[in-house]
């Protein structure tokens, strides 16, 4: 197939798979219109002294305050626990990790057991609320009347290497099933989850997926199998995050620890579509006939750049220049995925934040 044929296939797949990035409605409402149900914010934290202060500060600055903020100190060796106390958070020391559990799920589970609110809001320590973000999230959750709401925080990046997360974010959204014309906003993102406490414990909470690396996606899929409604959205203008700010190695390890495992949680039809899409992008970029039709190649390339930018701008502070460098992002994605595949399915071992995760035994030790 020549460059025109491959290019058209790639464009059509890109449009179909990335037709929409579902965003939360962010209108403000008077505080007294909110339900009086208490919200418990639960933050699993392991050596998060560099980030947790920003999250706790953003919570304190909100016009509407949660019932409580629970920081689950997961055996941190830095100042995480001290910083949490300084901001007035309720600190729970995570018990020793039992056999069969992974660390984050164990921390979330123990945080939920100490919560007094009717609504649980799980947040990673590298996230934070925007101005009035908590009010917007609370209102949106109550308005949607869903038992579970999964939010992908808007990715704020400051250094060039952080932008290498671009393709990973797109694949995560596609895999969740929320971006296609037939998507129903179901899926799961790992950084932020809001759910009714009663529904959480009714399905067994994080205990039900205690050995899963991609915990929130597994939890939502488990909830859906039990008839619990769950929806997923981008958190633009509501909740932000900054991932992997410790150098390009943190980007590599961060995505590499779980991405291959996450592919096993993706439905087979969507997995096939993602493989076809990635393959078509590589085929278009390496097609020899592009040398004979450079103007056609350039036109198709620019269309793909605009399609990438259209989606990426709602996921993080990606620029048009970042989108134009999608071949670099694609190559990085491929290399990290191969690394993740080898660690997950060949070596069956990976690590994160000082913990070794033995995948064959599904434990975090």
TrEMBL record:
Single GO molecular function:
glycosyltransferase activity
The pathway is: Carotenoid biosynthesis; staphyloxanthin biosynthesis; staphyloxanthin from farnesyl diphosphate: step 4/5
Q: Where is the Glycosyltransferase 2-like domain?
A: 40-167
Location comes to:
Cell membrane
**Entry annotated with the keyword Transmembrane helix:** yes
Concerning PANTHER family, the annotation shows: GLYCOSYLTRANSFERASE, GLYCOSYLTRANSFERASE 2-LIKE DOMAIN-CONTAINING PROTEIN
Q: Please give the family membership noted in the entry.
A: Belongs to the glycosyltransferase 2 family. CrtQ subfamily.
Q: What name does UniProt use for this protein?
A: 4,4'-diaponeurosporenoate glycosyltransferase
Native organism: Bacillus weihaiensis
